[in-house]
What does this fold into?
Amino acid sequence: MVGSTAFDQFGSKQVIVLANGNYVISNDYSALGEIFEVGSVTLGSGTSGISGVVSSANSLVGSNFSDQVGTNVFPLTNGNYVVTSPGWRFDGNARAGAATFANGKTGITGPVSPSNSLIGTVANDRVGSGVVALSNGNYVVRSVFWSSSGVGEVGAVTFANGQTGITGTISPQNSLVGSSPGDRVGTAAHALPNGNYLVSSPLWDSGSLANVGAVTFANGTTGISGAVTSVNSLVGSSAEDRVGTTTLVLSNGDYVVASPMWDHNGIANVGAVTFANEVKGVVGTVSPENSLVGTSADDQIGSQVLPKANGDVIVRSEFWDAPGFPNAGAVTLCTRDFPCLGSVSSANSVLGRATNDVGGLDYDETNQRLVVGLKVSNVVVVFSPEAGTTSPIFDFDGDGKTDISVFRPVGGSGSEW
It folds into this structure.
């Protein structure tokens, strides 16, 4: 397979192997006659390949200069694929963008159009900012810069069936969308192992409150459409809460939403970490009833979340304030059986006892035991969710601090220095 004009650089971009063994060649520099950078995407057989010159007869192509069809190709788990072309021009509107579904056995040829693609209609909609493939073969298209009825960059995330795709224009009827300028719904999207998915929108506004943020849980078989609200999403309650800044999928399929800038009762940036199930998700406003939260200004709970291989989570909060000791720090262990709810406290965390106290840590996943060093207090503490905090380890003289000792074997026995 070769390009049709000089500087096409065919083969210099993506070559994607599909789940069925076929492959896709994308080249957003391809020219069509005298029109440069229209872009092309060509399907090849995994057994017999493909030969000839790139054309609209054997490839998906653009129609205008700098359409750059095939900026990215996303393989689906069922062998089909999706082509994104955020620079595609529609009806004179530059960078309206398009996302084109293709069968992994037969491919798709001809120009990108509303009849074969999901498209934007306004300049700089940039439909196809990204695609997330779901484990069940379906997929979602992110269009962060999509505008609605003159309201700029509200953003949209469109669910599509992985066997048939979706065509036409984006709307609240077929997509999850924002409502205010700059909501940018779909800043990120995450596939869950069971086929469901999440949409993170930390810049979402709630009425006059800017950047409250939202994370939307969606069924991977039916999708979700309409405006983001507190009825269908986990949301903040104050301006600049930015819920959804960090969303992590755990190895057990559950997920965590970290919101270190979340405010509570007028106290700024106490922070929150919200745990949710992969089947039910979580909706409503972030609160101590559904999240681990701080209590003092700038505690910033959620500034560091460490997922472990067994699905447990360690929340390290170095800015947490102890009474009389700012930034003493805290380390919280959260498990599926012992989810973290309410304020950070000695009941659920290892707490620093002096300013900048929290040091190194490690976790025994088999026995669910957290070990934390408190560097100023000279203590190493063991914590388990069932037992809570235990006494300092290696405290030989009973002074409440971890001692340093050397054990020397002597004649089959031993002695301590």
In short: The chain has a mean pLDDT of 92. The two ends are 76 Å apart (CA to CA).
